[in-house]
Inverse folding.
């Protein structure tokens, strides 16, 4: 896979970046596959596809398992460019990234990897991450992530093509945070006033809390 050293193009004007939404999880603690996650009446997957695309992704993939795909049958169209099926999602979430990695264009400059259980992603955050990546000293090697003002990490992760070999060599159950090491190959982008990249849903209680938060913020 080629990995040009030239600076990435401006977000929203053909960045070449591929958005990857990880939605193959069984959702055992939630009680149903996370691909079918709704906040109130809003189906989350199409919203995440839109956020990544409007934020600057040139292409958006959604990785599902067969049960996850079945769980969203009959729901509105995802709006993505491609659905990729992970046949062994129980092996680990990074295995879903491997499935996406095998389908991307040879000249892809990087991936924007986002889990479907972090539902409140805005396109402004995606734009901010891409802008920071575009302006960093080593865009082919630098992994970019959003962080809170207190330093807590969030999603999505922008993984450049220069780190694809490392990513491909990881086990399916290895955490993507291993790509954040060494520190000199990581760029933390502080996000203020937008909790979306940091709010995840793993249980019914967390879903209820997030829905309550959204209702009160309107």
């Amino acid at each position: 896979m080629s990995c040009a050293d030239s600076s990435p193009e401006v977000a929203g004007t053909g960045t070449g970046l591929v958005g990857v939404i990880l939605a193959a999880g069984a959702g055992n603690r939630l009680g149903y596959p996370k691909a079918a996650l709704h906040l109130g009446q809003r189906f989350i997957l199409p919203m995440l596809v839109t956020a990544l695309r409007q934020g600057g992704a040139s292409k958006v993939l959604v990785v599902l398992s067969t049960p996850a795909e079945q769980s969203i049958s009959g729901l509105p169209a995802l709006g993505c460019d491609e659905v990729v099926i992970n046949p062994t999602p129980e092996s680990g979430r990074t295995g879903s990234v491997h499935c996406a990695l095998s389908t991307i264009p040879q000249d892809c400059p990087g991936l924007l990897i986002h889990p479907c259980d972090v539902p409140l992603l805005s396109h402004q955050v995606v734009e901010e991450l891409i802008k920071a990546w575009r302006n960093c000293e080593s865009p082919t090697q630098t992994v970019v992530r959003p962080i809170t003002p207190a330093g807590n990490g969030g999603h999505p992760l922008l993984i450049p093509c220069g780190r694809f070999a490392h990513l491909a060599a990881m086990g399916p159950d290895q955490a993507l945070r291993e790509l954040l090491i060494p520190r000199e190959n990581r760029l933390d982008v502080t996000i203020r006033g937008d909790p979306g990249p940091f709010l995840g849903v793993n249980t019914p209680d967390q879903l209820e809390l997030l829905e309550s938060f959204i209702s009160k913020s309107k």
Q: What stands out?
A: The chain is about 30% helix and 20% strand.
